[in-house]
Fold histidine kinase.
Amino acid sequence: MREVIERAEKLKTLGEVASSIAHEVRNPLTAVQGFLQLMKASIIEGTNQKYLQIALDELARAEAVIHEYLNFSKPKLMKYDQISLTHLMENIQLILTPIASPRSIRLVIHVRQNILIFADLKQLQQALVNLIKNAIEASRDQSVVLVELSQLECHAEIRIRDKGKGMTPGEIQRIGTLFYTTKENGTGLGATVALRIIEAMKGNVHFESEVGKGTVCIIKLPLEPVS
Ligand code: ADP
Ligand code: MG
């Protein structure tokens, strides 16, 4: 069964929820960070120094995750710059290597031409990383996730194809619902954030999927900002 479902606006409350979670989690993290720094300053050398540094690095990582996923408290203005989609995809390939490589999944990029687009680099990168990460996570070991970039008249189109577990029409419909996840350690935030970013850029996302065969995620983005 093949389903095409247009993404719509499900995300009205995301801002409010995200802002309170970000706030509640950030405060204790900042406190822990402060105490660890105090401890680090009072210890001279040795193993504990190393452990403290690891703890501080991991805290910084947690802070980055909050920043990436939950920094949507205020309807943030997009910071539009001209960027090359090809270049952005190469960057994303690097970012996702630690997730794809251990499972021997190849992330392949097909580009017909260099596509220049006005977009908020960081936010678009976040959206694409979240969607491609989902494709990798749905895939079997040793398979390929293909990302195709093409330029239509005044749109760029990004297709993310996986040969993974696929989704039922009901499951497709639930993507983008806050905290919806079918994974043991999932957050149910990645797709929600991605869809929100792409919709803010006046683009849209469709999913075509077949259970047991795989999924294509089709992202359309205007080449120029639309007001
Ligand atoms: P998470 O990845 O933490 O579960 P997401 O919001 O990123 O949360 O995704 C929500 C759910 O959508 C996933 O748990 C999964 O069930 C489904 N999903 C998203 N992309 C795909 C895909 N390419 N193939 C199969 N299922 C997918
Ligand atoms: Mg995800």
